[in-house]
Model the fold of this input.
Amino acid sequence: MLDFLGNLKRTHYCGELRAPDEGRDAVVMGWVHRRRDLGNLLFLDVRDRTGIVQAVFNKETQPAAHAKAEQVRSEFVVAVEGKVVKRQKANPELASGEIELVATKLHILNNSKTPPFAIEEEINAAEETRLRFRYLDLRRPKPRRNLALRHKIILEMRKVMDELGFIEVETPMLTRSTPEGARDYLVPSRIHHGQFYALPQSPQIFKQILMIAGLDRYFQIVKCFRDEDLRADRQPEFTQLDLEMSFPRQEDIFHVIETVMVRACAVAGIKVAAPFPHMLYKDVIRKYGSDKPDLRFGMELYEVTHCFPDEAKQKLQIEGSVFALAAPGAAGYSRKQLDDLTEKAKALKARGAYFVKVTPEGLSSTIEKMIGAENVHKLGEACGAKPGDLVVGVSAKEQIKGTEAAALIAGQLRLQLGEALNLTDKSQWRFLWITGFPLFEWSETEKTWVSAQHPFTGIVDEDLDKLESAPWEVRSKGYDLVLNGYELGSGSIRIHRQDIQERLFKALGLSQEQLRRRLGFFLASAKSSPSPKPPRRRTSWPIRPAKSMPRSSTSSASPSSPKSKNPPNDILVSDPGGRDVHLAPKSDGVRAVSWLLGILWSIFGAFFDLAREIKRRDRSGPKWFRCSLFVALIAGAVAETDNLGAR
Done:
């Protein structure tokens, strides 16, 4: 029979009892982790979030408690009263292994079914099972430690931001759609029929308003929502440290973020030193083939186009550049392994993969007949290859304007080879700042230059003259923070001059009507002396003529205010690229009919309920009820059709 907790109070957590507590009376509460019955002695390992303590039940000295302990099984919830004594033989595997609790009384607070998997540090249960029984999985030490560590890191972040003069401000969750890099999650508005709130992909607009208002330094540990395909490091909702500063230099921003990162890593027991290294975007692409490189191993890229004569380029159908790397210790790769590498390269849209094996006897290559022995040696020397290395070169099938397509392919092969050859030092934590991002990038689907940033990203002063004439050469004041091959954060210095902002909007092909509907409230505030400030998100907008507004399958709209002087009659939707789509507004006549049908639907709904009750009592039912039911269904279908059109 289960016991009541009553006024019983816990005096100690299980994992906090130590040798200095010897001789004290203690009351611990938790789950039974393990039970061992040795006859006269019965041992219960009681577990809570701090750890485990061993409770001993002696049949001779405490028969009632011992008898009750015999009923206990794994994961029962219990409270144990007793005295802390020193163990005859300490258990080094437990933090409380020097002592044990000699039980005088046992309270069984709840029982439990046998769990589907053991509550241990490491288990081999399927992920589906662990997620189905998430409440049991979270009892394991590892997930519990992760949650506790996350709490400590966020707490330290808040301490740092407070010390640096930042004010935490909570921004709304139900808001209007703003230009971001993914689809919005939508929440239907009950009051504004056919319109939706959008869950924020980031507090983009609100924090700009805070800076215009003079808050100077803002931050928030904020939940963000992005409706996009899942990836290993991306999920629909995530939490980010969001911050904004007024009158910053780029060095000021880096100092703030580096201070946060150093302190947060220290909480996790990781030592990192600031300042972090910097690289330009164009250099990091050519050197590592990625804008988020993993610096825990070398294997850098080299452009080796000069090693391929024009005749060889024609035969191999090489159109652009060729990039190569030297994989250490991979000269012994078999033909099958080389074929696998070739297939991986082709899957990444490579024209071909070219190999050179460097052995003590000399160099051998699959393309020696094409480029000649001299160029094979040049290829090996250009990559700094040593005996035992395998030189891997690639060219791209399709060229990408504004970047090196072959380098991007080689960068992916670099990561795969680094993992296969076990080159990554897992103990390292390598931060890197990347700056000098292009403001625009080429879109193959749109066949035009599109913005790689959000429309408020600052432009490098020297590149302003190229905004209209050569947008592909324009650099942004954006920056990314990368750690071990992952993008931790991104941001930029914002545009604070209205004339430059208008030039960028014009380059994007945004009409005044589009700007008014999507950003009108912000642009109005931006005329009141905004200060320079950095955002914390980098997203994507296209450059498109204002007249091009194809219908989008994914919509997001903002509810109109009931107090608005000019509430919009149509719904504004956007796709992932930020295109504005206006669904046709309903005329007054259509709105009147829709309103009337809604009233009729409500009236006939009441008749339907009454008819159903009469039919329940009398199966025949009057014919007029059947007629009213039919008319109600027709009216409802028409009203719903109108609603769908609005959506």
About this structure: The CA atoms of residues 29 and 79 lie 4 Å apart. Residues 297-424 form a domain with the Gyrase A; domain 2 fold (CATH 3.30.1360.30).
